[in-house]
Amino acid sequence: TQLLEQSPQFLSIQEGENLTVYCNSSSVFSSLQWYRQEPGEGPVLLVTVVTGGEVKKLKRLTFQFGDARKDSSLHITAAQPGDTGLYLCAGDSGGYQKVTFGTGTKLQVIP
Amino acid sequence: DAGVIQSPRHEVTEMGQEVTLRCKPISGHDYLFWYRQTMMRGLELLIYFNNNVPIDDSGMPEDRFSAKMPNASFSTLKIQPSEPRDSAVYFCASSILEGTPYEQYFGPGTRLTVT
Q1: Are A58 and A47 in contact (CB under 8 A)?
Q2: Confidence of residue B102 (pLDDT cuts 50, 70, 90)
Q3: Which residues contact B32 (CB under 8 A, 6 or more apart)?
Q4: What are phi and psi of A23, to 5 degrees?
Q5: What's the mean pLDDT in A39-59?
Q6: Which of A31, A33, A97 has the CB atom closest to B97's CB atom?
Q7: Mean pLDDT across chain B, nearest whole number?
Q8: How far is B30 from chain A (nearest CA, A)?
Q9: Which residue has the higher pLDDT, B96 or A57?
Q10: Which residue in B18, B3, B16 sits closest to B76, CA to CA?
Q11: Given B31, B43, B44, which is nearest A88 (Cβ)?
């Protein structure tokens, strides 16, 4: 069974601070996704990374895929209250569009 | 285009009752997934379909759970009989093979409370 462990589980920071969320596994993935889920809604895809060492940027969010394709990180610069939510990583699970979701990081950005 | 539609949004039922959750995937999507989300266990895949055919139901907790997809635009997840431990948010998601690899579009979820 592929497991994706995310850290930290919970994070509460002040507006303007920087933060990094980690997603780790002992399994190799051909691709890894990051989703954000706001209260009362379903997860929404932020980015997909497919190449070891790949870095993608989405405004203030920077995503990196580990060289060995077993881990990933999400860095947020100058966090804003609108970044509040549950961040989930997900790795492909062997075909058929199936993915395994990580344990999640709940982020709260205080104005 | 409308996103994934789920109904009802909230369901409160008593232990032992039958519960049916409904999902309409995005038109043209050929994969449909049912997930359950709880604080303790996170987001768990229950079952998924490809072209209306169940591919993997290994995540279905037990025989009390069943899912069907009679056509490309409709799926149901049924719990009979329901138990308090089934209380969770149930999500339906759909995807298309020709899209971004493994990108899934989620519905708003059904919050189920079994008393």
Answers
A1: yes
A2: confident
A3: B23, B25, B48, B49, B69, B75, B92, B93, B94
A4: -135, 115
A5: 94
A6: A97
A7: 94
A8: 10
A9: A57
A10: B18
A11: B43
